[in-house]
Amino acid sequence: MWRRGFPGGTHPHYHKDLSSGKAIEELAAPEEAVIPLHQHTGAPSEPIVKVGDRVRVGTKIGEAAGAISVPTHSSIAGEVKKIEPRPHPLGANILSVVIANDGSDEEEEKAVLKPAAEQTREEMIGAIKEAGIVGLGGAAFPTFFKLSPPKDYPVDTVILNGAECEPYLTADHRLMLEHAEEIVQGGKIIMKVLDARQGFIAIEENKPDAIALMEKLVAGGNGFRVAEMPERYPQGAEKQLIKALLRREVPCGGLPFHVGTLVQNVGTALAIYEAVTEGRPLTRRVATVTGSAVAEPKNLMVRIGTPVAQLIEACGGYRGEVGKLIVGGPMMGLAQFTDEVPVIKGTSGILVLTEEEAVVPDPEPCIRCARCVDTCPMRLVPCTIQDYVEYGLLDEATDWGLMDCIECGCCAFVCPARRRLVGFFKYGKALVMERRKKSAAS
Amino acid sequence: MDPRLIYSVGTMAGIGTLFGAGLAYASRKFAVHVDPKIEHIIEVLPGTNCGSCGEAGCSGFAEAVVAGRAPVSGCVPGGSEVAEQVAAIMGVECGAGVEPPLAVVRCQGGRAEAKERFIYRGIQDCKAAQFVSAGSKACVYGCLGLASCERACPCGAITMGDNGLAIVSEEACTGCGLCVAACPRGIIELIPRTQRFYLGCISQGKAKEVKAACTVGCIACTLCAGKKAPPGGGIVMEGNLPKIDYDTIQEWPEANEVCPTKAFVFRNGARPPEAEDTD
Question: Is A315 annotated as a binding residue?
Fold first, then answer.
């Protein structure tokens, strides 16, 4: 096992047993799908359908606009009813295509592709971009862009990320158990695209069944090795995983390709496999619906654009008083004010907490205990950076590494004064980005 | 007398005289000539260092005036009164003085009138609240009530009312405009002091959305700009919101008889007492 790990980190309760034993269930297509045109990091896609158009499963409804952007596809067959701003899990209203299901579930004709083994690198990247694939771990960064690093930075190592360190979530775990073969094939495609030398499938030790299965699959010596990682949050964070596995440190403001590495979520590997071998666009994903305020937690295969309310309903509805609805996991997920928001490409789970669990204590003054400093996996000084952001000293905050914060939430989790550290960092980062944009424009 | 006492007093007096002479010489030799006008101008300026003149605070402005880089009427909060005083110090005519504008909060949707979508427990700052699902208020244009403008005001002219809305004190407001920049939703506007009424809403939403979120919002019925417009005109629709041309119309007491949601605000207190915005 890779015991060396990364600095800092913490051990939240994982609560994965709520759903880890439940096989992935296919959720029926929604009556009405709301598909936002902005589900990825980068520029939103441009709508290419009109109200009244008939679309099929996999019909492209949004075209990539800009260098870092991917197309969007319809996840159901039916008629485009509206194109208007709708609530989005990331907050604010985002231009979305509303499609009414006609029940036919007719599929769009897929592009005819050569067998994967005969495709060139460019053809495979093209297929991945056309399929609208983004990182399915949560950050939703366009995959094709990640697979085309600058020429000066050859990537020699591919890591398939099955760590799934976020508490409660089990979607990746189930995928590895039920689609192991495809994930490994997807991983091989990534290695071929990048001409990488070695591959790892990183899995936290709390998923022994997935580790055993993957080890059996890669036993033939096909370039991949299974890395059993210790259980520690945030093991699945890109930079921490690279550090723990390869002892390579991604520089400040840098990306994994700067140290010759690429990390892809196991779900993304599956999507890549489907895109390259079958030409299937990304129109569905696995999401864990869990938490103590859900009657029956499940792992569901859902169409992109399905309202969260329908997922909850499929899990027997809410149980008791609902305190908080979170899209994502408890550490990094975003609280929602309505269950009308749709599932998007980056939705790895829906967590519903009871009122008791969701109590937010009032923050108290910092007692200088430095627990946040010890736990920060990026080796920052959260308490000081928070002070700087609070008093609007953005230059100082940036000097102290504000922009290197990965928003994992460890500091706020361990803070005995319950200070809203991550909240301030997210706010500060947004302010810095805004200021940079302004100064770039002037 | 103890000679030690005489020696010590004498030594101290001697040292004192020596340093005194040194300092007296240095103050002449290295004196920096400061135009007394700068000191005088600083004395008449409001002293809030608001920066709306474009200089670095009041002393910067005073220096700029004396150096001829800034006009004598450049102090926005000071208005014509300060402009005249500065002009007198400089010995020039200040021309037509400009009355400083007044900051008004263009939202009347307090806790009783406007709905909330969720309970916000995050950072108590309007801009931070705006980042979380675009604010907790059902109306995405309305005042978030977390007092960013109050903290930005150098004159203490803004306080937060019990209804969660910002209140501007007309006497204390100098019209510097720092609150305008502090509001992430652009609710605060600077209006001329001669203006007796303004529209207390900036929602560009459609009637249905506005009604669902707030009882006093502008529903874009266009009555005030069309059918029942004031006799002299001066109100035109800009998108879903009427815009008052402050040069054309300063007073219109019947405005809220026309407006179905009573979205106009009167500065002279001709309004229902529970919705008093200024005091």
Answer: no
| Phi, psi of B186, deg, nearest 5 | 65, 35
Q: Flag whether residue B122 sits within 8 Å of chain A, measured between CB atoms.
A: yes
Structural contact between residues A297 and A314, judged by C-beta atoms closer than 8 angstroms:
no
| A369 assigned binding-site residue | yes
Residue A415 annotated as lining a ligand binding site: yes
Listing DSSP states for A171-239 in one string gives: HHHHHHHHSHHHHHHHHHHHHHHHT-SEEEEEEETT-HHHHHHHHHHGGGTSSEEEEEE-S-BTTTSHH
Structure confidence at residue A64 (pLDDT): 92
Q: Do B127 and A420 touch (CB under 8 A)?
A: no
> Which residues in chain B have Cβ-Cβ distances shorter than 8 Å to A420?
122-123
pLDDT per residue as tens digits for the range A176-185: 999 999 999 9
Substitution target from B121, B124, B125, B209 for chain A, most A beta carbons within 10 A = B121
Instruction: For chain A, say whether B127 makes contact (Cβ under 8 Å).
Output: yes
Size of interface A-B (CB pairs under 8 A): 30
Give per-residue pLDDT as tens, A40-83.
998 999 999 999 999 999 999 999 998 899 999 999 999 999 99
The whole-angstrom separation of Cα B188 and Cα B103 is 6
Instruction: Show me where the domains of chain A are located.
Output: 2-18+115-278, 371-441
User: Residue B273: pLDDT band by 50, 70, 90 thresholds?
Assistant: very low
Q: Cβ(A331)–Cβ(A375) under 8 Å?
A: no
The partner residues of A197 in beta bridges, in order of sequence, read: none
Whole-prediction pTM? 0.84
Which of B40, B264, B277 minimizes the C-alpha distance to B173? B277
Please indicate whether, in this complex, the C-beta atoms of B134 and A92 are within 8 angstroms of each other: yes
A383 labelled ligand-binding: no
With CB atoms and an 8 Å threshold, state whether A427 touches B123: yes
8 A C-beta contact, residue A351 and residue A168: yes
Nearest alpha-carbon partner for A352 in A330, A369, A373: A330
Interface contact B138, partner A, CB < 8 A: no
Given an 8 Å threshold on Cβ–Cβ distance, is B122 in contact with A431? no
Residues of A in contact with B132 (CB under 8 A): 91
Pairing of strands A198-204, B102-105: unpaired
Phi, psi of B54 (to 5 degrees): 95, -5
Residue A366 is assigned to a ligand binding site: yes
| CB pair distance less than 8 Å for B131 and A430 | yes
- Residue keyed to tokens 């809410």: A318
Q: Which CATH superfamily is domain A2-18+115-278 in?
A: NADH-ubiquinone oxidoreductase 51kDa subunit (3.40.50.11540)
Give the percent of chain B with pLDDT over 90.
48
Read off the pLDDT of residues A145-194 as tens digits, 9 standing for 90 and up.
999 999 999 999 999 999 999 999 999 999 999 999 999 999 999 999 99
